[in-house]
Amino acid sequence: MSPSPDEVVVLPLMGSCPCGQQWHEVDVHDLLARQVLDLPEVQLHVTEYQAEVKVCPRCHQRQQAMFPQDVRGQVQYGPRFQALAVYLNVAQFLPFKRVGNVLETLCGQRPSEGTLALHLNLATARLAGFEARLKEALLEEPVLHVDETGSKVKGQLAWVHVISSKQLTLSGHDPHRGLAAIQVMGVLPRYRGVLMHDAWLSYFQLAARHALCNAHLLRELRFLHEQLDQNWAGELRTALQGVYHQHKTGILTPSEKLAFLIRFDALLEAGLETNPAAEPVPKQRGRVKQSPGRNLALRCQKHRDKVLRFLHEEGVPFDNNQAERDLRMVCVKRKVSGGFRSAEGGMNFCRIRSDTSTLQKQGMNIWHGLVSIFRNDVLIPNFS
Question: Considering only CA atoms, which of 380, 373, 379 is closest in space to residue 125?
Answer without folding.
Answer: 373
